[in-house]
Every structure is written in C-alpha cells, then in structure tokens.
Automatic annotation (TrEMBL):
Residues 1-70 form the HTH merR-type domain. GO terms for molecular function: DNA binding; DNA-binding transcription factor activity. It comes from Vagococcus fluvialis. This is MerR family transcriptional regulator. Keywords: Activator, DNA-binding, Transcription, Transcription regulation. Pfam families: MerR_1, TipAS. It comes from the Bacteria. The keyword Signal does not apply.
Length: 248
C-alpha cells in the first residue's frame, strides 16, 4: 500500500493532483482511514500508470475518465494498441528525419533529390491517415487488394498531381457546387466529370465504384462533413444526386 505522498513521489505527480483525481472519480483510493489518509493498492498504481499514459497521448481528462471507467477498458488491449500506434508514428518520424537529412545534404550540394523523393514521407502519412479513418469501410466494400492498388497509385503521384492538379480540380468542383445546380445541366455534367477526374488520380474508377463512393459519403458523417464544410450544408447530397444521374 502507498500513502498519497508516496504514490505522488513514485509517479512524479503532486499529491494535489491525486486528490483532484479522487474528487472527480478518476482514481479512487483503495481505502481511507479514520484520519482521512488515502491508501493506494497495486490496482490504483496500475490505473495511475494508464492515466499518465493517456495524458502523454494528449487525451483530455474527460476522455481519460470515460475510458478508465468503461467496462471495455482492457489494459492488455489498450497497451497493445498504443504500442502499435506509437511504432507507426516512430516509423513516420524516421521517414521525415531521413527526408530532412536528404534536404540538408541537397542544400549543401552533396546530392540532388527527385521531386518524388521530396514528397514521399508526406504521401505515406496521408495513406496511413486514410487507412485509419476510412480503411474498414472501404476494405469491406472493395477488398484489401483494391485498397492496396489505390494506395500504390497514390504513392506514384507526382508533385504536380498532388499540389496543383488535384487541388485545382477540387476547387473548380467546389466553386460550381456553390451554385444552384439543376440536373441535367452543363454545370452538373461538369461537376460529375471533375469529381470523376479527381477520384481517378488515386482509384481505378468504374461507374459502380463511383456510385458506391457517393453513397458512402452520405452514410458516413466524416465524408458528409468534408463536403458540407467545404461548401455548404446539403452539398454532399447534391453531389450524390449528380453522380447518380450521370454514372447510372
């Protein structure tokens, strides 16, 4: 058993912090004696370790409390998942460090980087982020191989494709979507072709896949938010209706 000051010293926090954790129901002492002294068992020691890990990972106190008090809080699962996530982050940082070192060497005149090399680390990060956000839905619809093919195609994109072409296409599409579009119309057909062209940079697009994607835009709040925030509420529905008219 640890008294409050002993545990605070062991963990590198203050006794005041532990009292606050007790007050908000985040870390309850194992027992409190008649004098009001708090005592912490091995269970609370492990809980505090997890709480401090969550703090290190930028979880808010509210998020930490929700996780710690959840019936699904399994320490082995938690640490296994965080270990995997940290290794992936470490790998990305190592790639960024290598890119910085190459850039320094180029500035010193020791080598010449290709344009593909300049953006490699950032594209890999984008692929990883997309996997984390949307991977489960997309794999369930199109299969692992289709997703890998798409990621391979994205990795091969040139600097101009990433920083100019795709951005210009998307901005043109957003500008048109801000108008009061009727379907069929020349504007609607242009929007359809722009969206198809934009998707084709990273997908082997078919009409069936195109239709399925815009269905997913509406079904998944994350996709809906992307288009609605870029233009206005209802844009995702508008885009879906246009694609359905021309792709079918």
């Amino acid at each position: 058993m640890y008294q409050i000051k002993e545990l605070a010293d062991l963990a590198g926090v203050t006794a005041r912090t532990l009292r606050y954790y007790h007050q908000i129901g985040l870390l309850i002492p194992h027992s409190i004696n008649e004098s009001g002294h708090r005592f912490y068992s091995q269970k609370e020691v492990k809980d505090l370790q997890q709480i401090l890990f969550l703090k290190e990972l930028s979880f808010t106190l509210e998020e930490t409390k929700e996780l710690m008090l959840s019936e699904n809080n399994n320490r082995l699962t938690f640490f296994t998942e965080q270990h995997k996530a940290l290794l992936e982050k470490q790998s990305h940082l190592e790639n960024v460090i290598k890119l910085i070192e190459k850039t320094i060497d180029e500035e010193k005149g020791k080598l010449i980087m290709t344009d593909t090399e300049r953006f490699e680390a950032f594209k890999n990060k984008q692929i990883k982020d997309n996997r984390e956000k949307y991977g489960e839905e997309i794999i369930s619809k199109y299969g692992e191989q289709a997703v890998k093919d798409s990621e391979k195609k994205f990795s091969a994109l040139s600097k101009e494709d990433l920083t100019v072409n795709m951005k210009e296409i998307e901005e043109k599409m957003f500008a048109l979507l801000r108008n009061n579009i009727e379907c069929p119309s020349e504007e609607a057909f242009t929007i359809y072709n722009l969206h198809k062209e934009w998707l084709s940079y990273s997908l082997d697009l078919t009409p069936e896949i195109h239709l399925s994607l815009v269905d997913m835009y509406l079904a998944d709040p994350r996709f809906t938010a992307y288009y609605d925030e870029k233009v206005e509420t209802g844009t995702t529905q508008k885009l879906r209706d246009i694609v359905y008219f021309y792709a079918k």
